[in-house]
Specification:
Blueprint: E1 2-5, E2 24-27, E3 38-39, H1 45-48, E4 69-71, E5 79-80, E6 83-84, E7 88-91
Parallel strand pairs: 1-7, 2-4
Antiparallel strand pairs: 2-3, 5-6
Length: 104
């Protein structure tokens, strides 16, 4: 159950595609296509330096897994009671959208 993220500018990403956010929040209540979803846990690495409590964002040394993903993309087949039930997800490196999003 893995999370692969191509957003190398995200403060949660170790630049090898591993996400270390304690919780991921995927938005897209009305999404019908991947580009209408969004990883709202994305925090630009450059902004991290400006944040007084930036260490809170990466305080866990554990890689993110699909067991800690809140999903607001209600039309996705992996969304069960607003939680992601996919075995693995991939966050798009250009748009921070959820590339695992699939509608029935």
């Amino acid at each position: 159950m893995s999370v692969r993220c191509g957003m190398t500018s995200c403060t949660h990403n170790d630049n090898d595609g591993n996400c270390y956010a304690s919780v991921l929040n995927i938005r897209g209540e009305r999404a019908r296509i991947t580009d209408e979803t969004l990883c709202c846990s994305f925090i630009d690495e450059d902004l991290r330096a400006l944040m007084e409590f930036s260490e809170e964002f990466n305080s866990s040394n554990k890689r993110a897994t699909t067991t800690n993903i809140k999903c607001g993309a209600s039309r996705c087949i992996y969304n069960v009671a607003r939680l992601c039930k996919a075995d693995k997800i991939k966050v798009n490196p250009e748009t921070a959208s959820c590339d695992t999003f699939i509608t029935p």
